[in-house]
């Protein structure tokens, strides 16, 4: 089947329940990949899973567990708050400098057992972004494959915006966490719920960068302070929360987000 026939099938499926699967089939006809998930993001609200193709155990990690809080540290989610033209991006190109040594990767993402994840990103409204992730477990996408998939971006963005034009209603109708301005406020609220001493504004900022996977050097550069000051803040954060490692910080954050920490 040529691309004209494949794209025609996608257009025929618009506003039908099988549209997401038909679109994924069309993308796979150009470049193969094992797994896929499509999320809609609206600010800091719990993301809506629009489509996924995982075994049961992987669905729990990649969809259910993800929606409980880890999404807040996902580079795709963080990128979704920056409106722009439809685009295809590699996770590794967006990730902070210590992402693969950070606790989000080591405690959550490593469970996905993926060799690479790339994502088609487009906005259906200024504050609503859809990410269609294509995932491989065996080998990364080659530069040639990435270019071929990049050629599909205008088509995917156009049909996606048309099919999911009413997503704002779903976010309104679905029971959601109250939307806040940014991750810093969510961190502050989460740790306040733990009944611990409130972190200072600067400590919240440092906590945010630690959780995202930034090194002390990158955090210092982003905040305009010295590495030594970052380390002092980190020591104070750990003391106030009665923890000893980044792993414990990540666990406490997720527990606070899911209401499991008293």
TrEMBL record:
One of its GO terms (biological process) is regulation of DNA-templated transcription. PROSITE patterns: HTH_LUXR_2 (PS50043). Keywords: DNA-binding, Plasmid, Transcription, Transcription regulation. Pfam families: GerE. Residues 192-257 form the HTH luxR-type domain. Gene3D superfamilies: Winged helix-like DNA-binding domain superfamily/Winged helix DNA-binding domain. This is Response regulator receiver protein. PANTHER family: DNA-BINDING TRANSCRIPTIONAL ACTIVATOR DEVR_DOSR. One of its GO terms (molecular function) is DNA binding. It comes from the Bacteria. CDD domains: LuxR_C_like (cd06170). SMART domains: HTH_LUXR (SM00421).
